[in-house]
Amino acid sequence: MRVTKLFESNIWAFHENLILLKNGSVFAIYQVPSMVANTMSMEGKEKTKKTVEAVLNDLESYGDFEINDIPMPKDLVGVMEALFDRLDSNEIYQEMANTLFNKVLESIYSTTGQPFEYRHYLIVPLKSLHVSVDLKEVVRQAYRYTKETVLQGFGIVEDMPANWYVNYQEQRLVLEKRLGLINARRLSESENMLMNRIQYLRGVFYNRDYEIMNVQSSVENVDDVSITLENVSVLNLSNQESSSYVGFYPIETLPKNVSYLHLMEEIHKLNFGVESKVKVKFARTKGYFSILGHAKRSQDKIKNAVEEADQQGDTANKKQMVDHYLLKDLEERALAKEKILNYLHVLIITGDTLEELQFRRNVLRTTLSTLGVGVLEANADQLYLLYKTMIGETLSFTDRNFIQKISVEGFAENLFFVSQKVGTDIGFYLGRVDNQSASWLGKFREALASSVNLIFADVLEANKQDIDGKVTNNPHIAVTGDTGSGKSFLLKLLFVYHSLLRTKSLYIDPKDEIKGQFLSVADELEEQGIYPELVAYIRSINFVSLDPRKEENAGMLDPLVFLNRNEGKGLALTMVKTLKPSMTDKQENALLEAMNMVYDEKEAGEKRGMLDVFDILKESSVEEIADFGQSMYAKSTDSVLSVAFSRGQHKGINTNDKITVVGIKNLELPSEGHVAEVTDAEKNGLVLLYAIGYFIKKFGSEDHTEETLITMDELWQFKATNAGKKILNDIKRLGRSQNNFLLVGTQSVEDIDSKGDDTGFGTVFAFYEEKNPDRVIEYLKVPITKETREWLGNMTMAQCIYYDTFGRKERMTVDGTIWPELSRLFDTVKVKTKDEEVSWG
Predict the structure, then answer these.
(1) CA distances (Å), 402 to each of 285, 378, 726, 764, in order?
(2) Which terminal CB of the chain, N or C, has fewer other CB atoms within 10 Å?
(3) CB atoms near residue 150 (< 10 Å)
(4) Is 90 exceeded by the pLDDT of residue 791?
């Protein structure tokens, strides 16, 4: 049946974050940003609860307040459009990103439906008919409200003052000082209108801009919706676009001990949205309706029940005894001047069908029952709860049903204003927060399906200065974990995604496997005639393979080829000294003079390289110098050193390409602490390492105004030698000042520990490490407990802990199912699935 408007909206006017009701009440609405309280950080949660407790205690003089936790639709298209603005202007990368974004949208909407994110709101009355502590003012307001209601019945309406809000400006400033600890933000007027409007649009498709404009045109449109009752007790809301079934489920019972209840955290783990409305009134300290008066009357009832049971030979039931002690505890807290709250907590869910609504209701009730929280169906009270939970409605002393009594300290145990969020607001879709600590036994698709908490990341945002809430500006990113866990997959995924932005990207591939895999996929796609945009992207990459067996690689790292005179001479001298540490001053002077001669010829337009330098030395009339030149020439030809020493016949490596992949193969390096035992092969490896390191530093520092991303897999190769460590630290120090981002992959967090230097990693993706899992927990700054060990130890393929620049840490599942053809670029180990092959490196 259709329901007529038993209660019309009581809103008279809006101004910024204020609403004026027709009874003269004025309310201020604030959005509270999510606080950082990581899933496994009890210390962080306790700190958050204490902060909330302090703020709420300070609101006693206002009489009432309201906390709304609303699953607001996430504007995925808006996220993609904002990210699109950061893309490289080249059509190749625009087309590639366009396909990627469409794939993301298609995947998320088909698996999740309308994505949402929880937003938290605090509503406080600046003036209320039910709040005033001045009895004369209550009578005056009540008389005025009654008078206006009667006059309206005759068609007579008093005019509302155009500047009604002026009288509340100072009060609002005082309130905002009290809310400073939780960084509460005023709603804008349009946000205010929308928030009041969507109370009538739960689960219904709507256009945000249209609804705001509709309320702006007339405040009477706030409650414009069709409400019907189906099956006698189920509310159905509908507009011209769609309809939904809505259920209001009040909390009836709480556990006897609410310590660590964390109710809101558990609600957020569900894979559908649950709106939470909490109406709160501070209990009076004196009088018939005070908490002490209520406790006395309730205790008398319990006492009489116990006496009657004794007279009949029965024992008092357990519930009566527990209620007696709970009331006694409340009485003692009130006598100790603790603030006591009366509150109504209603959970609201929606469904497209009755069956979906009932299924979600059952899931909600079952989930909360494990916490000792009882939820009522309240079939006969759905209309009452619909209107009682509207913004601006407060609890009155006639509201008796579903009311809980608790101290402010106990109330804060609900863990309000906290969300399981990690990552950035604008960024590439990476996966989803994993809401459990148990193992998924490798079934990463089930882990993805269980969560609607989407994760987006733009790692280049770490260097931006106008991002609220960041705890670090460190731009460097690390991906750690055992082989086969998904580490390499995520590393390459991050590299490919961010290479689409306005940045130059370099990938150091120690196995020289990327070139072959990428080009193989490009060839297959080209043959099949599909995804030309992905093919074009792959073909745009400058693949440099430092394989000495191939003639085209000769001299790719020749310092005289890819560096100017000042830089090239210094690097060349270091490389030659590595091969011949016992070089005499005479030999060194001759080497420098020869390099000057060769650079003169190069600058005159000739193709020249280090072999030409050695030729000059060989022809010296001084035997010592000639022998030196002959030795260097012999070492440099038909060996791995041909990559570093040439005649300049090839262009050599350069820093101008947008995307460069440098493949290194069979690089032998000496172990740390064994310098005296260095073999010739290891010396050759060091020579190449110096050249590679210099190129990387040049790549990251050449243009300070240009963002550069350097990706280095298998970081242990650089950490294995003192020379490598120095090169790595030099690269890390480029950092913020040079607009350089370092993305590394390694098998252990030990490799990224910043002991001994002042640089580190601001963002970490930590996959499981079997060798020393406690070290991972310690690095993430999480207490080592049984629970945190399970949290980390039960991660399976494609799962890691994401530690972002905001200090948030959550277990996540990386989503590699969005674009299977793209995922094939990262193949190392293939896992057969029903639909396609997805690789996890």
Answers:
(1) 21, 10, 66, 45
(2) N
(3) 10
(4) yes
Which is nearest to 55 in space by CA: 489, 333, 458, 411? 411
Tell me if 663 sits within 8 A of 547, measured CB to CB.
yes
* Cα radius of gyration rounded to whole Å, the chain: 34
Using CA atoms, how far apart are residues 625 and 619, in angstroms rounded to an integer?
9
pTM for this predicted structure: 0.88
Name the residue type at position 18. L
Give the dihedral sign, CA 187/46/457/437. negative
Listed in sequence order, the DSSP H helices in 154-238 are: 169-178, 189-197, 208-217
* Closest C-alpha to 422, from 38, 798, 732, 823: 38
The answer to whether 475 and 735 are in contact (CB under 8 A) is yes
> What tokens were used for 124?
């406080």
Please state, in angstroms and rounded to a whole number, the distance separating the CA atoms of residues 477 and 498.
12
The Cα–Cα gap between 593 and 587 comes to: 10
H or E stretch at 661:
strand 659-664
User: Of 16, 238, 107, 200, nearest to 819 (Cα)?
Assistant: 107
Give residue 147's identity as a one-letter amino acid code. Answer: K
509 beta partners: 663
SS3 220: helix
Phi and psi at 831, nearest 5°, equal -120, 120
C-alpha 374/C-alpha 360 separation (Å) is 15
Q: How many residues does the chain have?
A: 841
Q: How confident is the model at residue 133 (pLDDT cuts 50, 70, 90)?
A: very low
Other Cβ atoms within 10 Å of 47 Cβ, number: 14
Answer yes or no: are the C-beta atoms of 121 and 559 closer than 8 Å: no
Question: According to the model, what pLDDT value does residue 355 have?
Answer: 96
How many Å apart are CA 496 and CA 661, to the nearest integer?
11
Report the number of secondary-structure helices (H) and strands (E) in the chain.
Answer: 28, 26
User: Which residues, other chains included, contact 164 with Cβ-Cβ below 8 Å and sequence gap of 6+?
Assistant: 13, 15, 20, 26
The SS3 of residue 201 is: coil
Handedness of CA 410, 416, 420, 423 (dihedral sign): negative
Q: Please say whether the structural domain 11-74+117-133+166-283+339-412 has been given the CATH code 3.40.462.
A: yes
Computed over every residue of the chain, the mean pLDDT equals 88
Nearest Cα residue to 708 out of 501, 480, 488: 501
Residue-wise pLDDT for 14-66, tens only, equals 999 999 998 889 999 999 999 988 889 899 899 999 999 999 999 999 999 99
Q: What pLDDT is recorded for position 673?
A: 58
Decide: 360 and 349 in contact? Cβ < 8 Å.
yes
3-state secondary structure at position 418 = strand
**Cα 6 → chain centroid:** 43
Can you state the angle between helices 722-734 and 680-701, rounded to 10 degrees? 0
Domains of the chain: which residue ranges? 11-74+117-133+166-283+339-412
Separation between Cα atoms, residue 753 and residue 755, nearest integer Å: 6
Which runs of consecutive H residues, i.e. helices, occur in 604-715?
A: 610-618, 623-636, 680-701
* Cα torsion 582, 585, 588, 590: sign: negative
